[in-house]
Amino acid sequence: MKIVIVGGGKVGELLSIEFSQAGHDVLLIECSARVLEQVMEHADISGLVGNGSSYDTMMEAGVGQADFFISVTRVDEINMIAAIMAKKLGAKHTIARIRTPENYRSYSFFEESLGITMMINPELEAAKKIAAELEFPFALNVDSFSNNLVNVVSVPVEVDSRLVGMSLVEFKKRYQTLLVCIIVRGRETLIPRGPDVIQAGDIITVTGTKPDLEKLYHDLGAKHERVKSCIIIGASRITHYLLKMLQGTGTQIKVIEHDEEEANRLSLEFPQVSVIHADGSDKKVLDEEGIAHYGALISLTGIDEENVIISLYASTQGVDKTITKVNRTQILASLGEMGLQSIITPKELIADRIIRYVRGIENSEGSSVEALHRLADGKVESLQFAVREGSKILGIPIRHMNIKPDITIAYIIRKGKPIFPGGDDEVKVGDRVIIVTTHPGFDDIDDILTKESAERLFFQA
After folding, report:
1. Cα angle vertex 128, ends 127, 131, to 5°?
2. Which of 91, 133, 358, 384 meets the CB 3.0–4.6 Å disulfide criterion with 86?
3. Which CATH class is domain 349-460?
């Protein structure tokens, strides 16, 4: 496929690397020659210096022949104009990053009248992610499949946990419908198998339904309950979206915002929320506002360092759940060793969403990716595939499939019901199959098979 990307920021860079590694023909348009050169050092792509919303630049880039045109600059208006022009020139699918709520609310107009295929809002995606984290406060990360039917949660294993020393065989006996699909041990990331043993300090990623996860939470020493109170630092766009999502949940919420005008505006829009005009990075302010009495702290200021320090301080004061927004992904590797819990990176969230959408469209004639989540700092992917006629895995017991190493079939969703698969289970047409793998770039459920197995099944068919 030919993919044209406008904007060489972090999102554009992530997309360029991902799509080039998948073997696509990628062209990046960026107005800064220096930024373009930096991205091209990390991705096997073509580059064009220019304005992505310029007609001449688009013609030179051959946008009319593009399968996907993706505009992810920092400016909404440039992204919208570029996507509209690309569609008029003949691009099959157009995607625009839209950040301001006013523009995002006009999505249906832009889609129906002007032909933008997909508009994506990083702040809205971040708010959705935070709301899910508040559902599972003990988890370090939460993702879901099939409308929250199956959840993927990452949890720490403390020294005194009853899980320490437990093999995966023992784990399966105790938690019959839960699966440990990833173990992060220091800098090592494992797709574990039965003989592997859980150790203190591990971060395990588990798939299962909400009711089944309750028993695990109890054994980890944490009873799973929705957070009943939270304090938010910063009245950002994410805060606005999150407050709307939390309306009607009964959650006690306080927001601390240093800008008086913004604090007043938020107070008028959400009269049920306690809004404080103060500096949320000031220890004295946090103490006066009773930070230790809240179930969760969400740090959403525009400065990464402030967010990190605020969350670390909240942890020292006994706050059970901290959620920290971090934009600069290059510092994420060191943050995990600082004791931070959940980390939200809006740019990575929308990159994952775009990749998921492109993969789904790419394979729309056969089995396709319906959902994709990156885990363990991007080293692992969990994917949901729709299984259609012609798939090579149909009608074969799982134990007889020659599956590539480092792949786990976590769940099968059949007619809206989750099935925890065993070796004798078979996949049927219409099923949704959730897998976890360290292999990047899977587009089809048949990609899980070894080459020899896939070829044999092809000739048998």
Report:
1. 85
2. 91
3. alpha beta
